[in-house]
Amino acid sequence: MGKLAVILYIIIGPTLAGLGALVPLTMFGVNDFNALYLVASAAAGAILAMPVAWYVANHLTRLMANSAARQPGEPVV
């Protein structure tokens, strides 16, 4: 699951960091923002992506384990 979390972080990390970087640009405008807010918001998004990637990897691992244990023709619950 750790490898899957790292692979997912490669996608989720920049996405949430980019969303975090948009926050000060949206609040203060493009010409009147503080660069510290931009860096702090992007870093917060990247840090927030770690538990999100772990949660998604855990959920995907459980789904794959459940589908492997299911017999062919058995309905998906």
UniProtKB/TrEMBL annotation:
Keyword check for Membrane, yes or no.
Answer: yes
Q: Which residues cross the membrane?
A: 7-29, 35-57
Which superkingdom does the taxonomy of this entry point to?
A: Bacteria
Keyword terms: Membrane, Transmembrane, Transmembrane helix
Please report the name of this protein according to its UniProt entry.
Uncharacterized protein
